[in-house]
Design a protein that fits this description.
The chain has six helices and four strands. By secondary structure, the protein is α+β, with helices and mostly antiparallel strands. A four-stranded antiparallel beta sheet has the order 2-3-1-4. The chain is elongated, with a radius of gyration of 30 Å. The model has no long low-confidence stretch (mean pLDDT 83).
């Protein structure tokens, strides 16, 4: 019990004799820990946001006007068999036109003589990183009836690159802040 009393009395006398040093060290550690916590929270939010954006990347497979239902069905089956594909949804010409009318009513003020939109498959990958791979593989396969494949290659590349840069910056900053906080605490204790 006397050791504990001695320890507390020595600590109190050291704190009271070096009040300005104690205050400066305490504030330095407090600011360092606050910045570390703030950066971890902000970094977690940014990573969560980038994962949300990556989850919205899709590949769209458009069919020629001459494509048969059998060809469209066969392409859908091949897409479903890909292990990197999460979901495959068929969008008919009529459904595509209805969606366009809802999103862009100003384009449909004048009645069109026919529906210019094609049938399509909308493919959602299991991970956003698979979007370019799926798009390129469908494009290279040259399946019967497929007219065009789009996956927003520039946008997908930009989103994936930004997500990777954010992850690297976040990791480096956390390592630097943890190292700085550790050195500050060690210096304060010494």
């Amino acid at each position: 019990m006397s050791r504990v009393r001695l320890l507390f009395s020595e600590a109190w006398s050291s704190i009271s004799m070096n009040l300005s040093t104690t205050f400066a060290a305490t504030m330095t550690v407090l600011i360092g820990m606050f910045l570390l916590g703030l950066f971890i929270a902000l970094g977690s939010w940014v990573l969560s946001w980038s994962n949300h954006v990556k989850s919205e990347l899709q590949v769209k497979v458009y069919f020629a006007g001459t494509a048969t239902q059998a060809q469209e069905y066969a392409v859908g089956q091949k897409l479903r068999n890909d292990p990197h594909v999460k979901t495959v949804v068929f969008v008919s010409k009529a459904a595509a036109q209805k969606k366009m009318e809802q999103e862009f009513p100003q384009l449909y003020k004048t009645k069109l003589p026919s529906n210019p939109l094609p049938d399509s498959w909308v493919v959602t990958p299991t991970k956003g990183e698979y979007t370019p791979q799926i798009g390129a593989s469908v494009q290279q396969a040259h399946w019967a009836g497929v007219d065009d494949v789009r996956w927003g290659s520039a946008t997908a590349h930009r989103v994936l690159t930004i997500a990777e840069v954010i992850w690297i910056v976040f990791l480096i900053a956390v390592v630097l802040l943890v190292t700085a906080s550790t050195l500050l605490i060690a210096n304060t204790i010494r």
